[in-house]
Amino acid sequence: MKGSDVTTYTTRFHELAKLVPHLVTPEQNRVDRYVWGLSPVIRGNVTATDPKTLQEAVNLANRLTDNTKIIHVLVELNRFRGRGTEKYEKRRENVKNAQVQYSSYLAFASFQIWRRQIRQR
């Protein structure tokens, strides 16, 4: 299967299954052959759920494909916003470093104040 068009793949699978029914006679063989033709991105997830019927495998493949499409859209949107880029990560790291330095400064300053209070007693 090329791309993420599960419906086209499913239709073609049913057409071919009618031509050679002896290859997909037991339901488990049919499910295994269907799963084997799926995109590697979702094949592992479908295999992990161990669907018992072809309809379960088809439904799961459709849901997973929809989820991967949504994830790809979100990744592209974040990339468009500048997130996930090297520049964004560097800026984020700089902010973290500044926060750590500031918190260290606050800890040191409060320690100095505490020390003065102890000496004055």
What is the general shape?
elongated
Return the structural class. Answer: mainly alpha
Q: Span from first to last CA? A: 79 Å
Largest sheet: none
**Unreliable stretches, pLDDT < 50, 5 or more residues?**
none
Strand portion = under 5%
**How much helix, percentage-wise, in residues?**
over 70%
Radius of gyration: 28 Å
Number of distinct beta strands: 0
Number of helices: 5
Order of SSEs = HHHHH
Overall pLDDT metric: 82
Textual characterization of the structure:
- With 121 residues, this protein is an all-alpha fold.
- It is built from five helices and no strands.
- Helix 3 (40-49) packs across helix 4.
- The chain is elongated, with a radius of gyration of 28 Å.
- It comes from Centaurea solstitialis (yellow star-thistle).
- InterPro entries: Ty3_capsid.
- Residues 6-69 form the Ty3 transposon capsid-like protein domain.
Short descriptors:
about 120 residues; mainly alpha; 5 helices; Ty3 transposon capsid-like protein domain-containing protein; Ty3_capsid
Describe the structure concisely.
With 121 residues, the protein is mostly helical.
Topology (SSEs and partners):
Layout: H1 6-19, H2 27-36, H3 40-49, H4 54-81, H5 86-120
